[in-house]
Design a protein that fits this description.
By secondary structure, the chain is an alpha/beta fold. 38% of the residues lie in helices and 20% in strands. It starts with a strand and ends with a helix.
């Protein structure tokens, strides 16, 4: 067996995330590749949530439908996951609680009570799973002690005992399920983090020194990550009273010379639209992380979707540059977040980083990110007397950006149309000159765009096209199909559309768009920009990311 798919399911508040955190840490410690993702209901207690953990000897970065080992913590878990439970699924849990006939009874609560209380039931479960995986007991116990190090010696010892008892009961169940999984020594030098961590770390690498947000899932994960990192980095993190205030505070911070980040979701970003237009008018940098969830309105607050692309591209009234980036994996989450600050500073325009709930909440082992040798480039100038903030004359529409207090010049900005000095004007010729100046940035950004990345057969006949978080399941589905003539074109830079896209499309006999929304928003954009229509669209809007099996089946049906 090359890998194991483990699913934990139960009510919110039962400690599923505790089991997940401990188990993934122990699996990585044992040199296994790990991938974990979760789906959860919009409630603090009750309901039915689940966490999927893939443990493998090879890198895995996408969710699968298959369940090899299921640990249900409630009776509702069986019904919740019924369409994924197969005859080959091993179900282990407390039969008295779950009431499922086809399961192996392992009384976590009773064992935990022997140790000192029900609070240790999760550690008992972790011990049983580690035994089934044949992870060495002593190494695991050291990992458990490290996990509870901050809790003190007494808690450490109690959890170590709960682990030992769970491990012994797991061994008694029979041969390990994953005895054939071989560890990969390379995992020792890798990191394991969430998409939210990748974006936050990329922002810090990009020189971010101010973060503000109003909490809104799933964008809040980046806010909390930055709050944690603020203990080690010189960055201010502030929770604001509403999203309108958030956007305007970020614009003010950029105007004063800071590098600010906003993090939100679709409903919050909608409230920022006027401020986005303000940033376009006064040509002030603005970086927003938009973690997408299903809409409209409140929609499904804790589920995933790629439904906000149009919102981002067309945010704000009037014509001005907006750059939209969409990471497909952790490395891109880091590198694109860093690039967002450089681009915003260079083009003095809004830059949006589009992720989604699946991306920010999933995590896996990955090689450490390559850190840039050069520090972030802060493109501000020391102003002299007579400085004009919107000086004309550059071919790319970019004027030297001054900040108040750096130099002797006056840095005048205004949301009304303005002249080169930043003062209000209604002069027709100046209006046309300023519009042309702002539009020139779009052409300049298109030249600087990150080109799409081609995966698969370079002599493809069928070309799959996608953006953002569909990247990982598409690549695993392609690997499963192993079909010649098949390739995937991934777009980390979504808008303005990079040059040369039409050539990729025209080289294919069949073009298929894959994205996580109901209408194919990116497909519409590509058709508008290139004139090449897609032959098929694979779309999904049920609040879940594609599984590898689902995409394999849907792509295979088209082939």
């Amino acid at each position: 067996m090359a890998e194991l798919s483990i699913v934990l399911s139960g009510e919110a508040g039962q400690g599923i995330q505790s089991i997940e955190s401990m188990l993934t840490a122990l699996a990585k410690r044992a040199r296994f590749h790990v991938f974990a993702t979760k789906e959860y209901m919009s409630r603090v207690r009750g309901g039915c949530n689940s966490t999927e953990i893939r443990i493998s000897r090879q890198r895995v970065t996408a969710r699968v439908a298959r369940i090899d080992l299921l640990i249900p913590l409630t009776k509702e878990a069986i019904a919740h996951l019924g369409d994924r439970i197969e005859d080959s699924t091993l179900v282990i849990g407390e039969k008295a609680i779950v009431g499922y006939d086809r399961m192996i009874d392992l009384p976590f609560s009773a064992i935990a009570a022997e140790v000192g209380g029900a609070v240790y039931a999760n550690t008992v479960a972790v011990g049983a799973i580690c035994a089934l995986l044949k992870i060495e007991a002593g190494e695991c116990e050291r990992g458990v002690r490290a996990f509870f190090e901050r809790k003190g010696a007494e808690v450490q010892e109690a959890n170590a005992e709960a682990f030992r008892r769970g491990y012994a009961r797991g061994l008694a169940l029979g041969p390990g399920l994953a005895a054939a999984i071989e560890p990969d020594p390379a995992v020792a030098g890798e990191i394991m983090l969430t998409g939210a961590d990748a974006v936050a770390l990329g922002a810090l690498a990009g020189g971010c020194d101010y973060v503000c947000a109003y909490p809104m899932s799933p964008g809040t994960t980046v806010l909390t990550a930055m709050a944690e990192y603020s203990k080690s980095f010189d960055v201010i993190v502030e929770q604001v009273e509403d999203e309108i205030g958030v956007a305007n505070m970020a614009i003010g911070a950029w105007y004063a010379g800071a590098r600010a980040l906003v993090t939100t979701s679709g409903g919050g970003f909608a409230l920022m639209s006027e401020a986005v237009s303000l940033a376009g008018a006064i040509e002030t940098p603005f970086v927003a992380h938009l973690a997408q969830r299903p809409g409209p309105a409140t929609g499904l607050p804790t589920r995933t979707e790629q439904g906000d692309l149009d919102l981002a591209i067309y945010a704000g009234h009037g014509d001005f540059l907006k750059i939209v980036l969409a990471p497909g994996d952790l490395e891109e989450g880091f590198s694109l977040a860093r690039a967002a600050f450089e681009l915003a500073d260079r083009f003095q325009s809004p830059v949006f980083i589009l992720t989604d709930q699946y991306f920010v909440d999933s995590y896996y082992t990955t090689p450490a990110f390559e850190l840039p040798l050069a520090p972030p480039t802060r493109q501000v100038v020391e102003t002299a007397p007579g400085y004009r903030r919107y000086a004309l004359g550059s071919s790319d529409g970019i004027s030297p950006r001054g900040i108040p207090g750096l130099g002797e010049g006056i840095v005048c900005v205004d949301s009304d149309e303005h002249d080169q000095g930043g003062y209000i004007t209604e002069d027709r010729a100046m209006r046309e000159a300023m519009v042309a100046k702002r539009l020139a940035k779009i052409a300049a950004a298109r030249k600087a765009a990150i080109p799409p990345k081609l995966f698969g057969d370079p002599r493809y006949k069928t070309l799959l096209v996608g953006w953002g978080s569909v990247k990982a399941p598409v690549l695993e589905a392609m690997a499963a199909l192993a079909r010649p003539g098949l390739a995937y074109l991934h777009f980390p830079w979504v808008h303005p559309m990079p040059r040369g896209v039409r050539e990729y499309l025209e080289a294919a006999t069949t073009c298929v768009a894959i994205e996580g929304n109901a209408t194919g928003q990116f497909a519409d954009l590509v058709e508008l920009e290139t004139g090449r229509r897609f032959d098929s669209r694979i779309l999904k809007c049920d609040g879940y990311q594609y599984t590898v099996e689902e995409l394999t089946e849907r792509i295979s049906a088209l082939l």
